[in-house]
């Protein structure tokens, strides 16, 4: 999953081709609907833990995790179909810039999970400037071009590379040496490569001048938050409890996620290894134990980077004329008891 979320950052614009039913515990309480940004994965683990361990019920909530479909979580929130939703950083920033009724309320991932990867035996690639003239297999978003060009130029290169749009087949193409490099989410695709014995090397974005970021958020709408402050606070705090439990109880949390989505997970070992990487890399919780809190400096730095790169477009598809006040795009206020 670099941050950019796990899939929104890398797979912006791809349509889903599958849907399924996620069982919901019978509860009584205030109803809350939550949308996912992709098929269930370890980025979502705190939601399923909070639901199936009864944390939401204890908070007086009846939480329904909506099955993933071809409509983004941001669109479902903006249109009042979902109260909260998981959204990748890139998807959040671009939809908000275009006028979506969104506000980030929880940082699922505390630091960038994405990275630029290539096969480990490529002795000709030692730093990003060596990517000039090579072939990138990607997902067709403007973000990718801006990101990779920045990495290469910040390393002293020209930023000239060939691009082929492959979607998720880019990972197979890399393994087969049909392309030279791609982008992946370390905590899923990277872990999968390790389990399959495919040695890779990688460049971290933050090592070459691209701001570190929260790759994944929980978002809601300002209208919902204003109308339901107590419910929002209860949901955020119970969700935080779910993610904290997953950090401290990896085996049980992984089993909860797998059992809740039996038709999706044919390889429980990948789920366990992915959660292990998320925990040991301080992705779900910072080194000081902080879970869920949005880092204002990190949020605003990524917003400024996207604005400067011309990635943030208005509702008419034109680059924003003025840099937004990004501090208005998120809040940590619902962590307080209420």
TrEMBL record:
Does the entry feature the keyword Hydrolase, yes or no? Answer: no
Look up the record and name the pathway of this protein: Cofactor biosynthesis; thiamine diphosphate biosynthesis
Q: Report a single Gene Ontology molecular function.
A: metal ion binding
The reaction(s) this protein catalyses = N(6)-(pyridoxal phosphate)-L-lysyl-[4-amino-5-hydroxymethyl-2-methylpyrimidine phosphate synthase] + L-histidyl-[4-amino-5-hydroxymethyl-2-methylpyrimidine phosphate synthase] + 2 Fe(3+) + 4 H2O = L-lysyl-[4-amino-5-hydroxymethyl-2-methylpyrimidine phosphate synthase] + (2S)-2-amino-5-hydroxy-4-oxopentanoyl-[4-amino-5-hydroxymethyl-2-methylpyrimidine phosphate synthase] + 4-amino-2-methyl-5-(phosphooxymethyl)pyrimidine + 3-oxopropanoate + 2 Fe(2+) + 2 H(+)
UniProt-listed InterPro entries:
NMT1/THI5, SsuA/THI5
- GO BP annotation list: thiamine biosynthetic process
* The entry's keywords: Iron, Metal-binding, Pyridoxal phosphate, Thiamine biosynthesis, Transferase
Q: Name one Pfam family in it.
A: NMT1
The SsuA/THI5-like domain, residue ranges: 41-253
What is its quaternary makeup?
Answer: Homodimer.
What family does the database annotate? Belongs to the NMT1/THI5 family.
Function, as annotated, reads: Responsible for the formation of the pyrimidine heterocycle in the thiamine biosynthesis pathway. Catalyzes the formation of hydroxymethylpyrimidine phosphate (HMP-P) from histidine and pyridoxal phosphate (PLP). The protein uses PLP and the active site histidine to form HMP-P, generating an inactive enzyme. The enzyme can only undergo a single turnover, which suggests it is a suicide enzyme.
- State the protein's name: Thiamine pyrimidine synthase
């Amino acid at each position: 999953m670099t941050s950019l979320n796990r899939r929104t950052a890398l797979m912006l614009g791809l349509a889903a081709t599958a849907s399924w039913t996620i069982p919901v515990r019978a509860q009584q309480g205030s109803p809350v609907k939550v949308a996912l940004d992709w098929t269930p994965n370890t980025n979502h683990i705190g939601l399923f833990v909070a639901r199936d361990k009864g944390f939401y019920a204890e908070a007086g909530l009846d939480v329904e995790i909506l099955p993933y479909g071809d409509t983004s979580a941001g669109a479902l929130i903006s249109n009042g179909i979902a109260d909260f939703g998981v959204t990748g950083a890139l998807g959040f920033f671009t939809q908000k810039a275009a006028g979506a009724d969104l506000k980030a309320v929880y940082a699922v991932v505390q630091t960038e999970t994405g990275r630029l990867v290539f096969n480990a035996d490529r002795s000709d690639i030692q730093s990003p400037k060596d990517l000039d003239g090579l072939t990138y297999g990607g997902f067709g978003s403007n973000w990718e071009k801006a990101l990779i060009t920045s990495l290469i130029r910040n390393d002293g290169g020209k930023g000239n590379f060939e691009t082929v749009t492959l979607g998720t087949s880019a990972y197979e193409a890399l393994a087969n040496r049909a392309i030279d490099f791609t982008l992946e989410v370390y905590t899923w695709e990277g872990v999968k490569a390790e389990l399959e014995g495919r040695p890779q090397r990688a460049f971290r974005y933050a090592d070459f001048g691209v701001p570190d970021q929260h790759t994944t958020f929980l978002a809601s709408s300002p209208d919902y938050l204003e109308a339901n402050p107590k419910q929002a606070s209860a949901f955020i705090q119970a969700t935080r409890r779910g993610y904290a439990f997953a950090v401290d109880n990896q085996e049980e949390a992984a089993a909860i996620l797998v059992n809740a989505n039996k038709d999706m997970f044919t390889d429980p070992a990948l789920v366990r290894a992915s959660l292990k990487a998320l925990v040991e890399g301080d992705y779900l919780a910072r080194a000081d134990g902080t879970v869920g809190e949005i880092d204002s400096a990190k949020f605003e730095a990524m917003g400024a980077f996207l604005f400067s790169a011309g990635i943030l477009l208005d509702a008419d598809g034109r680059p924003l004329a003025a840099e937004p006040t990004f501090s208005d795009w998120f809040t940590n206020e619902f962590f307080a008891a209420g």
